[in-house]
Amino acid sequence: MPVKKTTAAAPAAESVSWLRLPAPPQDDRTDALFEHSVSVRGYIRNTQSVLAHIPALVLAQEALSRSVTIDFTDGLTGRERELIALAVSVQNRCEPCVWGHAAKLREITGNPRFVGLVEVNYRRADLTPRERAIVDYAVLITERPWTIEPADLDGLRAAGLSEREILEAAAIAAYFNFSNRVNSALGVHPNPEPFDANR
Q: CA-CA distance, 54 to 199, in Å (whole number)?
């Protein structure tokens, strides 16, 4: 008799968002994504559970997320990437992303008070001039993208960013605006685990 493969099951989307949906359909690709999430974080992110109703979408979202926050070997540091993720998410008041990226930044910095200040008002946090330029740019992309001019990129260059790093900063900020808006539009609830992590 063949052994039944066990997978990490996603909760019904109804319990994790405003959508009235059953559990996501069974799909080997999303099953693998859920199993990876459980192995790395210990839980399935609610956003994944919701987007898994369109497997191609959740897989594309995961690939894009990894490309801007995890799969990098040079350019912006992990701290700088998480500062962008957190500042954009705070600006958009996206609870799942604020909780998740505050937890990651606490892990990176080992400084919950610093991260708490970034959550309240990054302008009062002890950022380097380079970090402040990066976060100001990310917030500008979030709040008033139509006002961005060549001089804004010159300011980043003056703060020490390379052309590649400016591209990265723009891509990370743009990605989190996408992610934040999906979460907010569908009422995706934050997972409780990251709120308690790394304090």
A: 35
Quick one: which of 103, 109, 106 has its CA closest to 195?
103
For residue 150, how many C-alpha atoms fall within 13 Å in the half-sphere facing its CB? Answer: 0
CA dist 113 → 120, 127, 172, 175 (Å): 11, 13, 24, 26
What DSSP letter does each residue of 87-140 carry, written as one string?
HHHHHHT-HHHHHHHHHHHHHHHS-HHHHHHHHHHGGGS---HHHHHHHHHHHH
The first and second tokens of residue 46, run together, are 């609610």
Residue in 136, 141, 133 with CA at minimum distance from that of residue 162: 133
State the Cα torsion 177-179-181-184 to the nearest 10°: -140
Instruction: Answer whether 40's CB lies under 8 Å from 67's CB.
Output: no
pLDDT tens, the chain, 199 aa long: 443 344 455 555 558 999 998 888 889 999 999 999 999 899 999 999 999 999 999 999 999 999 998 878 889 999 999 999 999 999 999 999 999 999 999 999 999 999 999 999 999 999 999 999 999 999 999 999 999 999 999 999 999 999 999 999 999 999 999 999 999 999 999 999 988 877 7
Q: What would the two tokens of residue 92 be?
A: 């958009």
How far is the C-alpha of 89 from the C-alpha of 101, rounded, in Å?
8
